[in-house]
Amino acid sequence: MPLSKPVIEYPGGEAPSDLKIEDIVVGEGAEAKAGDTVEVHYVGVEFHNGEEFDASWNRGESIEFPLRGLIQGWQEGIPGMKVGGRRQLTIPPEKAYGPAGGGHRLSGKTLVFVIDLLGVK
C-alpha cells in the first residue's frame, strides 16, 4: 500500500545537538547500507518553524540518488532502514548544510525530514 505524503508535526523545544533517528514505520524489504543508491520520497521542514522547504511528493515522483552524494545526516540516518519503512531524521546544521553563512539557504538550520524508503540498489 503506497504511503501518502506525511505531515510533519512542528517539534518545538530545543533542537537536538546530534542526529536524531526515529522510525515511524519499520519496513520489511531490503536494508539500505552505506554507499547504496536509494529511491525515496521525502518531506523536509525547518525545525524552528515547521516550514516545508522541499518535498519530492510535490513533484509527484520519487527520487533516486547515491547516499554518498547526500548530506551527512542522510548518509548516517538511512543505513539500517528497510524498504517500505518511513523514518524521521532531525539533522543539526553540522550534519546538514553547515553553519550559518555557509552559502546555502539552509545553512545554520536544523532540518527535519520524513523519508519513505522505496528501493535500494
Please name the defining characteristics of this protein:
121 residues; mainly beta; Chitinase A, domain 3; 1 helix; globular
Summarize the topology.
Blueprint lengths: L19 E6 L11 E10 L5 E4 L7 E4 L5 H6 L8 E6 L19 E10 L1
Antiparallel strand pairs: 1-5, 2-3, 2-4, 2-6, 5-6
Overall tally of domains: 1
Could you tell me the mean pLDDT?
94
Strand content: 25-35%
Portion in helices: under 10%
What letter string, H or E per element, gives the SSE order?
Answer: EEEEHEE
CATH fold field value: Chitinase A, domain 3
Largest sheet: number of strands, sense, barrel closure: 6 strands, antiparallel
Named at the architecture level, the CATH assignment is Roll
The tally of beta strands, per DSSP, is: 6
Count of helical regions? 1
Task: Please give the radius of gyration in angstroms.
Answer: 14 Å
3D shape:
globular
| Contiguous runs where pLDDT drops below 50 for at least 5 residues | none
Broad structural category: mainly beta
Describe this structure as you would to a colleague:
It is a single chain. The protein has 121 residues and is mainly beta. The protein has a single domain (20-110), classed as Chitinase A, domain 3. 5% of the residues lie in helices and 33% in strands. It has one helix and six strands; from the N terminus they run ββββαββ. The protein has one helix at 72-77; strands spanning 20-25, 37-46, 52-55, 63-66, 86-91, 111-120. Strands 1, 2, 3, 4, 5 and 6 form a six-stranded antiparallel beta sheet that branches. A hairpin with a 5-residue loop joins strand 2 (37-46) and strand 3. It is globular, with a radius of gyration of 14 Å. The mean pLDDT is 94. It catalyses: [protein]-peptidylproline (omega=180) = [protein]-peptidylproline (omega=0).
